Amino acid sequence: MATNFSKKDMIKLQNLLRKSKKTITTAESCTGGLVASLITKISGSSDIFNGSIVTYSNSIKNKELGVLNESLDKFGAVSKQVVSEMLDGVLKKFEADFAIAISGVAGPNGGTKNKPVGTIVIGIASNNNIKK
Description:
Layout: H1 7-20, E1 24-28, H2 34-40, E2 49-54, H3 58-65, H4 69-75, H5 80-94, E3 98-104, E4 120-126
């Protein structure tokens, strides 16, 4: 059963980050900044959120986050490898303690047999190289 991350949950997360003096950032592709928007909708989020980046194209993933063109060519933008590199790049770019990165095939076009519409890769990481 799926659960929704509510406004109350976001406030709890932000208070936990604030109490720990930690920050979070995002690197988003198919979500187009939605996660960053959900974070910044909460008043006072500027003390736990330095910024975010929407890297919709592969070129911007490479130029702004340092995602290797080799990874994009070999695995595709919607892959664990690319999302991992997005996490590394956004943690560095925004000097954050934690990051969320998302890449996917939103549709209605763009799907393939191996990566149909709806395929999403979400990664989280800390600045001490813990990734999920």
